[in-house]
Structures are given as C-alpha cells and as structure tokens.
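My current task is to audit a protein record that another person submitted. Please read both lines and tell me whether the tokens look consistent with the sequence. Do not assume that whoever made the record got everything right. I have pasted the whole thing underneath without changing anything:

===
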Amino acid sequence: MFGEDSPAITVLCGDQPPDGMERIERSATVRYTDDDGLADALTGADVLFVYDFLSTAVPGAWHAADRLSWVHIASAGVDPVIFPGMRDSDVVLTNSRGVFDAPISEYVLGAVLAFAKDFARSLRLQDEARWLHRETERVEGRHAMVMGTGPIGRAIARMLRAAGMRVTGIGRTARTDDPDFGVVHPSTALLSRLPGADYVVAVAPLTEQTKGVFDSRAFAAMKTGARFINVGRGELVVTEDLIAALRANEIAGAALDVFDTEPLPADSPLWRMENVLVSPHMSGDAVGWRSVLVERFAENFDLWRAGRPLQNVVDKNLGYVPSTAA
C-alpha cells in the first residue's frame, strides 16, 4: 500500500517499457507489467496506463483493481478497456485523443491519391520494366463521405477539402452548418447516402451500433467505382462481405489499415487483390508518436495529482470522448 504522496501506477506495456517515464517515476511508484502479470500489478494501484493499447488483458484482471481511480489508454479507440466492470465502476477513463489526427488524415489523402493515380499498378509495371501508358482520375470535385465526425474525422475532412474534394460526414447528430463537413447526415442514413460517394472513409469508434456496419448491404449500396478506406476499427467491417464485394466488382477498391484479426492472416485473400492496399495498423504512427503518447499521459498525470479535471475523459456508455468535452 502506498501513501498519498507516492501513488502507484501500473503500466501495461508488454516486455518493452515506454521511454520518457522518468519524470513520472520521480513522483510515483511505477510498476511495468505484461498481460500475465497485470492482475498482480493492479493490486493497490491508483492508476492504470494501458500503453499496450492492443492488449485485451484488462477485463480479465479487473477483479484485482482494489483502489483504482483512473485508467488511461494510449490510443484514441477505447474498445479494449470498455466492458461491464469498467462501465459500472467509478473509475475515470481517458484516451489519447488528438495524437493521431494529422497522421491519419495524411494517410487517407495518400490512399485517395494512390487510387486516383494508379500508383500500385505503376509499381507493379515498374517491377516488370513495362511501359504502359494509362489515363488517371482527378481528385478535385470527387465526393468523400467520412463516417465518424470526431477529431480524426474532422482532420480527414479538412485534408480532403484542401485537395479539392467535396466532403460530407456521417455522425450521431445531423447538421447542415458543420465547419469541417458542411453537411453531416445521421448514422441512420448511411445506406441511403452511400450511393453518392466516390470514397467512403470509415473512422468511427467501435460501439455496439457501429460493429459490422459495413456489410453486404453497405457495399451493395456503393457505386461500382467507389473506394472504401478503413482507418477506424477492423470490426466496423464484415470482412467476408468486403471480400465478396471486391471479387464481384461491386466496389472498385479498398485501402485497409485495420482488420478484425490482426495481424492479417497470411491466407487472407486481401493480401493478393490488386485493388486492395493493406497496411499493418500504422496509419497514425508517424515518427515520434510513442513519445507523444507518454507526454499526453504525463500531462494528465500532473492534472490528476493536482486534483484538477482530466483531459479527454471518455463517456463510458458512448465509448468515446463527447465533442462537448473536447
């Protein structure tokens, strides 16, 4: 048991403790642990820092959290730490909202340009030393629909608009005067709005309402020339339905950074489809991102020690930070 002047912080980090924790170590007892040791490390801990944000160990170790008051996760998505025990507790949950906005928006623009300018085929032809002239598509004037109107979705909207695209949003609340999207349609209107989009970008948080929302009906509703880009959560998509839609040419292509099973299995057809771009959950991971994640936790730790309101407090029922609490 530790006194009030020496709080105990458990850091779930696997076998690689994060750099930059020295300042926190000077004012707290810090316990670094992997999944197997999490339950023991939670006993008597005041704070849990889920640095390994892909870990699914927190629900199974929750019974050992006997004095926990705050959990911080080093990601924007909080689905690994949202479960009944967390929802029903008084423990405050915060995330790393804001760290990944710009890198992910650049990734999305890069995927749009890669499709429009046929870069993947150019690289394949270059490997074959083949000179094959083709015409490419314009990006300016194309319609991108972004599902997810939080900070990352807004950064994507601003980036695509800067490239000359027309952007609309799909969000929880409909509005016609949004500063980044202009028009935001309600999530209930997704299927009716999909036919008008040239690019569909999924960046919504994973909730019971959004899980599997991109299924056979959604892909059938898209125009045959549309491209689908997922930088949100793999579970937003029914993978088998996406593969079937690509094989049937119901949509023209997909850029996928997240998957319902990670790493993506080697036998997945997605690896070998010429109209699919696969990246290993890295769209937001620009150089220096790990240090920024620790800095964000440290900033919140200072607020917590001072008894001040924390940044990026998640609504545990919604599964994300409400815009009004940004």
Summary: The chain has two domains: 8-99+287-325, 101-278.
